[in-house]
Amino acid sequence: MTKFVTNILTLLLLMPTVACAQSDKNTLSLNGTWNIVFDDLNEGIEKKWYLDKEFTKLQSKEIEVPSCWEETEENYEGVGFYTRKFDIPASWEGKIVEIDFDAVNYYSEVWVNDQVVGFHEGGYTPFSFRIDKLLKFGEENSIMVRVVSPIILTDKRIDGMGRQEVPMWRGAITGGIWQGVQLSAKGHTHLADVFIEPHIASDEAVLNMILNNTDATKSTKELLVNIVDAKGKVVASNQESIEAYPGKNELTWSLKIEDVNHWSMDNPYLYKVLVEVMDKQVVEDQWSHQFGMREFSVENDVFILNGKPLYLKAAFFEGLYPVKLAYPDSREMAIKEISLAKEAGFNMIRPWRKPAPPMWLDLCDSLGVLTVGSLVTECMLRPISTPRLSHVVENEVRETILNNRNRTCIVQWELFNEINRPILAQMLNSMSVLARELDPTRMILDESGGWGEGANIYLPYERTPKKFNDIHHYSGSQVCEEEFDGYLATAKTKEEKKALGLAGTKSYGKHVVPGMMTYLSEVGYGSTPDLIANNKAFEKEGNPIVAPTVYHRELNEGYINALKKAGFDKIYPNVRDLYMEEQKMHGMANKRMLEATRLNSTVKGYCVHALVGGDWVIGAGLLDLWRNPKTLVYDLTKAANQPQIAPIRILPRNVYAEKGAQLQVFGVSELSDEMASVEVQILDASKKVVWTESFNTKFATGISSFIDLKLDTKGFSGSYTVHVSISDINGKLITSNKQPFDVFSAEELKKPEYKVAVVDTEGSLKAFLDAMGIRYVDFSQSLSVDIPVIVGKANKKNKIYTKKAEDVKAFVKKGGYAVFLETTGNRVPGFNRVLEEVSVESLPLKAEMFAKWATRGGWAAKTHIVTEHPVFEGLPTNMIMHGVYENIHPVEAMCKQEGTYIAGMIGYDHFPNHDDMRRHYNGPGEVWWAADVLEANIGEGQMLMSTLRIIDFLDKDPVAEKLLYNMMNYAHSKAQ
């Protein structure tokens, strides 16, 4: 753990939690041990288990409140009856008494002393019931709560709610009373709601209060408001006599704060407001909350905090924990994850599709991290479409906003995510209007990703939207030149693209309007956490029945098995070495994506997916589920997050020595202009400096070009690294960076002398061979088996190609050798698939092919491994493909194909085959293996099958030529 995080932990563990309720004498916690009966057959209502005398006949078990009942009953979903006894102080008689639930998932029914109280629907928001007429004061009382959890894994239908029909977070079932419960007592005229609006222009806190008079006659009360600073000094106060009529009485007071401190990430200054309702100097009700004076909005297409520009750097966050699942395992764990996010350079956390619990939001307020107000309205086609969908969505919008609108850290409400259904697209405007009515102070994003109709944001106090580009894009592991350029071109107009030399470049996002303010709200790659260390933690501190324990263990076992199946265990005899190399790849990919994003002036921020990874996005985290930083993933992402960075580009990444390369060094700064000293060096593989340049220049706010020159690479050969260091005028290092590239001389690309036969129905392979003066003959069935066959572009729909491919197979069966530079086969479906080993007899036309999403990753590690073999002579081997392989890196792979793996992939199924249970808490699917370069015995001969993008990059990338020549030479040696 870093020194920064250790200091923060020490400080915050000494801090009291935020007081947000009544004083102790007027509250009574019901947290602790309850009894529960799991009603798997849903017979409890019919048999009246809600009555104490009936419940006592049952065999109950103890359960802690709060907790997810998955911690007690493995993977249970359905109905549970909770009960406990409690004493009520005699002094509470004559007061209004309420029972307050922080959150119960999903549907709740409550009885007190065998008398019905009420029901609540919604699993992530608080609710209260008045119960004073049902209580026995000064005596023992009983409470019964019937809970129906979300139905996710089974076909149960309970109380009109079926499988995946209610809003649910994908991290866990989280059934039961998973947050706290308490009783509170107050006067007959009491506070029903307080909403604080900070106005920094006037340094005023506006309190919107609702005073509820439960009697049938009006009453006169004294209302007192005090605002206290961090030292306990009252800095604003007001007291008035109020005539409260029966029902709700609305009041608005503005209190000016002298010598105000504005809340920010660097100065998370919090005030405390205390509101008291008094009758003849006796406090009948009180409410307190901490708040900060801050405003967050957009001006001139830039995010601003308290009137100052802010480049938004967010971390995506699912809020899944190793033991308690939906709630932090401990306050220390919550502090650690928030502090590590802030230390890594993030100024915002985006909780995803689950409202964060109060304790976690308290910490974000205190630590100074912006957060997104998350709603569990929908999660990637869940809840499924039923006639109840509109109702449950509106319910979640209303309750979540009302519950959290006094949170300083929450600066924006995010209503929907990646909409796919017309009914939700139809609700975009109405739910945005509702959100604005409930909270005029915050920005509202109607849909992250803009899949429905393109995103809109509503600025504070605005009722009409501002069009806004909100984009989700995952590059996978290879941020090659084409991919990097896509970030630079995103949201640019045709004229801007042309000026940048990016005309015709494909950009990213759906429903994107060129030239408009843009936010990249999902970006990042993935890697496997250190499952060895994780599983030791689960053995020592975990719960053996919860899903994270199970799928972490199974994932590690799956990787070990897959490595053996593909033969890659010879490279990684210790599976932990693979995990560490994956994390290096993850960090490099994240860093390049963020550098590219920050070089686009139209993009005003990004959100990295993800801070912590679990369930089916286990690979995405910068931290593992136990909140340990994932080595270079964390470090390199942190480096790209810094206020000042120096991105480097070598174009092309793999250089023909005789052609040279373009060297570009940029500066990106969020700080004020300053003079700086720039030093650029190129080091060879032995770390000898072969080129250098240094100069003084202005490190300006925004995006600068420090170097853009043609690099003469004649005489270069091998691997090189560009090093950049930028210091201030006093010699203090501001930032540094490095970027590798490789140079190939003509001698290294020596053309093969051996004759080959060619099948090329498309023509591009022959055109290259002709241009290079390489001898070949057309393949025929009468070809001698001592001449190898090279097969070009694959096209399964082309009957000529398929006939030729079958002819080549017949040739191989007779003892020939053939190289298929591209492989075609049956596209593996995205969902509901069963992955089975595929016989070599399927080749060359019927392999099971995984396409781009499965082979390049996205947010999941898809690791392509290169073995030491003549096919890769002169290229790096026994490693994960990256660097020199970024262009020819496969976008397809032969899944579980029998044969000898020369290069291939290890990955897990992130859309596991669980019917419509996919995308949920029970973790990723099986670990599988796939081939990128495979040698297979067919009859008396052999085939070499490839999915590398060799043909596409001939004469563009020397690595493609190197591989082609190696394959031709290897094929010749095998054919003799």
UniProtKB/TrEMBL annotation:
Domain Glycoside hydrolase family 2 immunoglobulin-like beta-sandwich per the UniProt entry, residue ranges: 189-294
Chain segments annotated as transmembrane: none
Database matches in Pfam families: Glyco_hydro_2, Glyco_hydro_2_C, Glyco_hydro_2_N
Keywords: Glycosidase, Hydrolase, Signal
Full protein name: Beta-galactosidase
Residue ranges occupied by any Glycosyl hydrolases family 2 sugar binding domain in the UniProt entry: 29-170
Family of this protein: Belongs to the glycosyl hydrolase 2 family.
Source species, domain of life: Bacteria
Domain Glycoside hydrolase family 2 catalytic: 297-451
Native species: Carboxylicivirga marina
Signal peptide (residue range): 1-21
Keyword Signal: yes
